[in-house]
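Q: How would the structure tokens look for this protein?
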Amino acid sequence: MREKKFKKTGCPNEQLKLNLQKMNEAKKRLIIFYQDYFSNFYLKQRQKVKDKILWTLRIIETQEIIPHEYFRFIENSDGLYEIRVSQGNDIFRIFCFFDKGNLIVLTNGFQKKSQKTPRTEIQKAIAIKKLYENEK
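A: Here is the predicted structure in token form.
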């Protein structure tokens, strides 16, 4: 039954799926990966960054009110949100959107190297969202 939530993931990393499935806390939201955009980003990260990403995803899944420092709506972005992850001096962003109420679909991620989020990364996330919506 749990495997169904990853139906659209295409995630090559079974360990990542298992780590997210182990969360026993009451979930307010469900997070899925669309194809392998997020998992490709995730697999390239150092272990400490991976751990922090999973920790942040758990916060988003389990907290009634998500702190603004971890989750923020992106203005003029066709419904995109950014998940904000910091590990040491490194800053990462993962784009996502809501589908069917409390279902969060992860799109792409990147390491932030400047103050402003690159428009190309937002455009990539919008394109992935459109692919997802056309596939439904």
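Strands lie at 30-33, 71-73, 81-87, 90-99, 103-112.

The chain has one domain: 2-135.

Upvote if useful.
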